[in-house]
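Support request, please re-run this one:
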Amino acid sequence: MVLSAVFILDLKGKVLISRNYRGDIPMSAVDKFMPLVMEAEEEEQTPSPVISTEDGINFLYIRYNNLYLLAMTKKNSNAATILLFLHKLCEVFKEYFKELEEESIRDNFVIIYELLDEMMDFGYPQTTESKILQEYITQESYKLESQARPPMAVTNAVSWRSEGLKYRKNESVNLLVNANGNVLRSEILGAIKMKCYLSGMPDVRLGLNDKVLFETTGRSATKGKAVEMEDIKFHQCVRLSRFENDRTISFIPPDGEFELMSYRLNTQVKPLIWCEAVVESHSGSRIEYMIKAKGQFKRRSTANNVEIIIPVPEDADSPKFKTNSGLVQYAPELNAIVWKIKSFPGGKEFVMRAHFGLPSVKTEDPDKRPPISVKFEIPYFTTSGIQVRYLKVVDKSGYQAFPWVRYITQNGDYFLRMPDAVKNTNLNGSSDHVFG
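Re-run finished. Output below.
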């Protein structure tokens, strides 16, 4: 991978920060970028993150909040690696400034230039781990301090971890359902996140119930099922050659919190929290909702901090609610009902009823009605069935490590489409009886 220049621009294409690494592309070439992006957006719903021009200049970019992070190159470079570097830039900036937006770029341009110089040399990526960068590039009260000598990790083979670390303790679903209840799209996006506080330079090995491993070795999963993971992405600390040879996940971990790997399972998923909606419209004067929510996961598990967001017409008023569990609120800024259930046990079913007045006679377009969205978190539970079979920590000093594993499932893009409103019928009784 070879980069010629990096730019940070606002949404209008104005350059906020730039760094020319090789000098083989005129910096004025950035003026072509925004017209090309606008042209691509007009032609495609999802424009390509790579745009090439007739004069051989390649623009590779990502958008984050109100910023464009842009790389330019003339070489036939690896596009995926360049885009990964831009994402790493985002991660490092967020570690330093907490929020990555136009204002934080303007307030911290001195340290940003310092980071750009340390993270890349003559167009080649160097140190991209924020924890290592923070050891010798610090900023306190808008004053930049840089040590005379960078830490050994910058020149070590293990560039993501400093030597000599010592600790007293050593520890180591997207879903779319249509109005008829059919699952249109489902997938599991998973990640293994680690929090390591280990002394020295420990060697860690992680074993999963990996289907490919069991098939290769001729073994069968001892407990539960084996899982076939797709689109696996590892942290740079993982020894890829060993994983390719025998599926062993072996690594020297960074210090602190990091994401070891991410994966995807393109599989049919049963909705963990199922919502059934009945909508009744009364001649344009009022509208009523009945929402049934059921936990379709094991009874011994419990979903925490469940939020069910039900869209309502933008001109609805005079809200009234009744439920047998949780708290219901009207959120006019969202044009939605927000039903919060702090603890939702598996197998349980809860009901919520809502009543709104409709001051204007206005026909709602069902095709433009937003879906019901659900937010939740289920600890000690995995939808995919992935399991950590073992976690071994080996260090030359021979200290004892105490690994601890926790499973958790959260919502991703979790949507259930609303049914059409039923006119002039009752929902288990009259409105006066329910909300009297």
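The domain at 273-371+417-435 is CATH 2.60.40.1170 (Immunoglobulin-like). The CA atoms of residues 179 and 419 lie 5 Å apart.
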